[in-house]
Amino acid sequence: MRSIGYLVFVLFATLVGCRTPYEPEVPATELRILVVEGYLDTEGLRSELKLSRTAPLGATSTFIPEARAKVILKSVGGQVFPLSEIGLGTYVFERNIDEKQNYILEIELSSGERYVSEQMQPIVTPEIIDAGFKRDEEGVEVFVSTQGNANADDFLWTFEETWIYRPRIRSPYIYVSELRDVRDRKEAEQNSLCFKTEPSPGILLETSSRFRDQVVFQKTITEIPVGNERIMERYSILVSQKGLASKDVPFWEILKKNTEDIGSIFSPLPSLIGGNIKSLDAAKNPVIGQVSLGVIRQKRVYINYVEVSPWNYLDPKFNDCAIGEEAVLRSDYQVIFGNGAVVPARPFMVGTTIVGYYPSSKRCTDCTLYASKTKPSFWKD
Question: The pTM is what?
Answer without folding.
Answer: 0.86
